[in-house]
């Protein structure tokens, strides 16, 4: 039987994607869940303090700031939220195990702290909120106005209802972000980890993962052969498991579904089944794109990344749990463009499954398409599966440690999704365990004696209580290295705060005549490039490419500058700018957009949002040191304003290959958008590489 649970307020959540504002409603998620709770909330003199399982929030009313401290593993302050003015008229309106809530009359604001250590601040009037970093920025990831900053011991996350807001984020600055919130906007600050890590379970539980294009229900003899390989079975064959996996979760063969359940339970094993909020298309504008067969298969359908389908999806999986009674659910993709929907999905799913139901998320795209994620959503999940198709990142300790494992951040059991390769190697097993991540056991791996031996000798043999001490020693060593590395970066940070010392460019592109180089122009843009009046004039469709590719061999490039005028060109991701490509494949790209904003692409992240005039000339500059870099703009080519800071991780230290100048796709490749858009004109004045 399913547990009886209180459902979130239909008024707040039904019929639309959850929003930051709807989650402020006291009737939404009022209970403590999954071992995370508010332990106390009290006012004493000029202070208001809320203590949760994972954090302590101390609100200094006269100063107007909130000190956010970690409690699990390493007790310490991690961030400070500053309003820059006193908070008056404080009233503690709710205090219970699920959440505490306070209101303020001046400035008008509401603050809610949930048991999972998520602070939610809603502005009742325009507010400027500054966030100070109190930990080392050993690793960080961003998606629009959402950021996660971590060191080896813990982390904090920032998430904002105003996704396009320019928050001036810089993980290495003392004040990492500044949010100018309009009335009604909501800012979240999550302290990490929100829950303790379940070490015994991480050493005991192992998932046998089955996927097939032919059979969704393995035979009993196959199920019995898995008995010694794990204690949980994942049936992930979406098309073969369900009749219409994009529209409803009804077994193709109900009698075999029941047989699998009986057999596995008879073996003392549990099983979880495939579902997907992202690919659940019923009732959405994408419903006609649903597929239910591999016949003439041309690729997976598009999904729903923002959560409008959450009520329909929850109704569908409620039926799965009641009628087909698996031990839990596997979600293939979530609402990775909407933090509020992601959080609501986690809490509603946990309420449905109860405390003992198994919940696994595959979220290689967790929040955006980079490595940002929301630990306070992950905390309601048992297993987090990440890394599908990212084999090139498996050698990166940072990728395994901070994104896949999540140890001391979300404290789920982080699992590497290495389902596309031949199987784990001894080297990969060592890296995964050192990061405190885990493997699932793919059923097809069991057909290889070599892979079985790697799993036995290099992986399972090390899943002992001694692993914890080994992991902690590694974390301590890397934390000490991070302290030294940050001290070493200080000189680079200071140098980037000053004007560059460079004088003459290594490559100067001028337009007295058409420069040497290759003209790369879409077939949709005949005669797109011409030199006129000392500028490169580009006449092309908005969302198509038209640029010059100029060879450039520089062994230690440190920056690029371009002068552009957007004009009537309608390009956004295909706006005018420059892209410097390196021999190692890395690229540094900056461009203007027709929506009067800037865009830059650096390793691992796309930056977007700062205002940029479209009718006037503007100078765009990117420059960098051995690891750090900045994007800047100027209206006169002399006085530059910093737009963004970024970390290229050493990717820009190698030799350059070519400079692209003109209308560029986000990756510099010669491809157009499916909708070319109207024809317009833009100009490039000059471009320099230093």
Automatic annotation (TrEMBL):
<dbReference type="InterPro" id="IPR017853">
    <property type="entry name" value="GH"/>
</dbReference>
<feature type="region of interest" description="Disordered">
    <location>
        <begin position="667"/>
        <end position="690"/>
    </location>
</feature>
<protein>
    <submittedName>
        <fullName>Uncharacterized protein</fullName>
    </submittedName>
</protein>
């Amino acid at each position: 039987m399913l547990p009886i649970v209180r459902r979130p307020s239909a008024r707040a959540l039904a019929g639309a994607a959850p929003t930051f504002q709807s989650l402020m409603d006291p009737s939404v998620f009022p209970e403590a869940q999954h071992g995370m709770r508010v332990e106390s909330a009290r006012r004493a003199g000029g202070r208001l303090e809320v203590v949760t399982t994972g954090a302590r929030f101390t609100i200094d009313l006269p100063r107007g700031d909130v000190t956010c401290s970690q409690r699990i593993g390493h007790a310490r302050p991690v961030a400070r939220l500053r309003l820059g003015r006193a908070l008056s008229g404080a009233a503690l309106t709710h205090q219970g195990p699920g959440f505490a809530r306070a209101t303020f009359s001046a400035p008008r604001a509401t603050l809610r702290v949930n048991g999972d250590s998520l602070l939610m601040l809603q502005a009742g009037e325009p507010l400027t909120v500054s966030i100070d970093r109190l930990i080392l920025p050993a690793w960080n990831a961003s998606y629009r106005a959402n950021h996660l900053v971590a060191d080896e011991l813990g982390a904090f996350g920032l998430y904002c209802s105003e996704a396009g807001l320019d928050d001036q984020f810089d993980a290495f600055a003392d004040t990492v972000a500044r949010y100018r919130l309009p009335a009604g906007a909501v800012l979240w600050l999550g302290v990490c980890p929100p829950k303790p890590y379940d070490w015994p379970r991480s050493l005991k539980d192992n998932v046998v993962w089955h996927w097939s294009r032919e059979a969704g229900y393995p035979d009993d003899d196959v199920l019995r052969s898995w008995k010694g390989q794990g204690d949980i079975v994942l049936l992930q064959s979406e098309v073969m498991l369900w009749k219409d996996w994009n529209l409803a979760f009804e077994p193709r063969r109900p009698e075999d579904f029941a047989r699998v359940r009986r057999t596995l339970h008879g073996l003392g094993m549990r099983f979880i089944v495939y579902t997907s909020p992202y690919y659940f298309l019923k009732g959405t504008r994408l419903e006609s794109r649903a597929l239910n067969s591999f016949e003439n298969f041309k690729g997976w359908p598009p999904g729903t990344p923002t959560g409008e389908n959450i009520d329909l999806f929850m109704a569908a999986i409620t039926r799965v749990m009641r009628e087909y009674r698996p031990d839990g659910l596997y979600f293939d993709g979530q609402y990775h463009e909407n933090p509020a929907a992601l959080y609501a999905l986690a809490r509603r799913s946990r309420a449905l499954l109860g405390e003992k139901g198994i919940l696994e998320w595959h979220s290689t795209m967790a929040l955006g398409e980079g490595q940002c994620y929301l630990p306070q959503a992950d905390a309601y999940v048992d297993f987090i599966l990440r890394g599908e198709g990212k084999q090139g990142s498996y050698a990166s300790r940072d990728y395994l440690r901070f994104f896949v494992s999540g140890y001391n951040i979300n404290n789920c059991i982080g699992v590497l999704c290495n389902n596309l390769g031949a199987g784990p190697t001894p080297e990969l097993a060592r890296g995964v365990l050192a990061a405190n991540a885990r493997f699932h056991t793919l059923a097809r791996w069991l057909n290889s004696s070599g892979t079985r031996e790697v799993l036995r000798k290099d992986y399972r043999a090390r899943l002992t209580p001694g692993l914890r001490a080994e992991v902690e020693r590694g974390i301590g060593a890397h934390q000490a290295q991070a302290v030294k590395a940050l001290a070493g970066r200080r000189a680079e940070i200071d140098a980037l705060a000053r004007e560059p010392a460079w004088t003459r460019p290594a490559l100067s592109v001028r337009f007295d005549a058409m420069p040497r180089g290759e003209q790369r122009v879409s077939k949709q843009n005949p005669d797109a490039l011409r030199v006129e009046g000392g500028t490169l004039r580009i006449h092309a469709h908005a969302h198509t490419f038209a640029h010059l590719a100029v060879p450039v061999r520089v062994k230690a490039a440190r920056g690029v500058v371009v002068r552009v005028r957007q004009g009537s060109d309608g390009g956004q991701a295909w706006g005018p700018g420059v892209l410097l490509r390196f021999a190692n494949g890395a690229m540094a790209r900056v461009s203007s957009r027709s929506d009067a904003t800037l865009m830059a692409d650096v390793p691992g992240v796309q930056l977007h949002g700062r205002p940029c005039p479209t009718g006037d000339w503007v100078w765009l500059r990117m420059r960098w040191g051995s690891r750090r870099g900045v994007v800047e703009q100027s209206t006169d080519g002399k006085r530059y304003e910093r737009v963004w800071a970024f970390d290229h991780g050493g990717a820009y230290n190698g030799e350059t290959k070519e400079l692209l100048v003109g209308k560029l796709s986000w990756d510099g490749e010669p491809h157009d958008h499916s909708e070319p858009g109207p024809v317009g004109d833009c100009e490039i004045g000059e471009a320099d590489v230093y």
